[in-house]
Amino acid sequence: MAEGGRQEADAGAMGTVNVSVPAMLCRRCVRVVSRRVRDVPGVVWLEVDAARGLVQVRGNVDPQAILAALRSAGFGVDEAPAVGD
């Protein structure tokens, strides 16, 4: 499920954050994750792949803020996110 996010003025500073979230089992999980991650400052785009247990985020965003959002949604994320361009 891909979702557009807010447009940021500084699109040149965008990066990609990939987080493994193995506990996503249903559409409700995907909706909860999408809502929480979309509210993190700097998120421009996100994709949640429940089958692979992967959340991909693009934007000028703090990876630790993504982890905090996922944990606050009740998902046990232990692994550090992978950050790329």
- For the record, the count of structural domains works out to 1
Please write the string of helix (H) and strand (E) elements. Answer: EEHEEHE
CATH architecture: 2-Layer Sandwich
Oligomeric form of this entry? Answer: single chain
Strand order of the largest sheet: 1-3-4-2-5
- What is the radius of gyration? 12 Å
Question: How does this model look, in words?
Answer:
With 85 residues, the protein is of the alpha+beta class. The chain has one domain: Alpha-Beta Plaits. It has a 5-stranded antiparallel β-sheet with strand order 1-3-4-2-5, with helices on one face. The chain starts with a strand and ends with a strand. About 9% of the residues have low confidence.
Topology overview:
Layout: E1 2-4, E2 15-20, H1 27-38, E3 43-49, E4 54-59, H2 63-72, E5 82-84
Antiparallel strand pairs: 1-3, 2-4, 2-5, 3-4
Key attributes of the depicted protein:
about 80 residues; alpha+beta; Alpha-Beta Plaits; five-stranded antiparallel beta sheet; 2 helices; about 25% helix
